[in-house]
Design goal:
Radius of gyration: 14 Å
CATH architecture: Roll
Strand content: over 45%
Structural class: alpha+beta
Helix content: 10-25%
Strand order of the largest sheet: 1-2-4-5-6-3
CATH superfamily: Hotdog Thioesterase
Length: about 130
């Protein structure tokens, strides 16, 4: 897991956004981010892209946790509630199905006990 952690801790966009990798296990990852003013859109709530990117980082870590490079080919997202500046978000990605070339993951983003977004994604595994 150390190699995967090292690879994704070099993610320049995640660093720019202030995201942190908290845990990586086979088929699982957890990331976090404190929502700041820089993450807000024109109506003063967290930009959907910021929430998506946090989940996408967890997705990348979980889907690459087995070793081979995995790249996303599809992700669907449902945003369930608005997020304001000062909230700390936690994203978790969990493996649903793993095959030689294709794998599927579910992601959830929470603020405390509140579910903020739910995502489902598919990766292509370059083996």
């Amino acid at each position: 897991m150390e190699e995967i952690y090292e690879r994704f801790s070099r993610d320049r966009f995640a660093k720019l956004c202030g995201m942190e990798i908290e845990e990586i296990l086979p088929g699982y990852a957890r990331t976090s981010m404190l929502i700041e003013d820089r993450h807000l859109n024109g109506v003063d709530i967290a930009q959907g892209g910021a929430i998506f990117t946090l989940a996408d980082l967890a997705f990348a870590c979980a889907s690459n946790s087995h070793g081979p490079v995995a790249v996303s080919i599809n992700v669907s997202v449902s945003f369930l509630r608005a997020v304001r500046s000062g909230e700390r978000l936690i994203a978790e990605a969990r493996e649903v199905s793993l095959h030689k070339k294709i794998a599927v993951y579910d992601m959830e983003v929470h603020s405390g006990e509140d579910l903020v977004a739910k995502l489902s994604g598919t990766v292509y595994r370059r083996i």
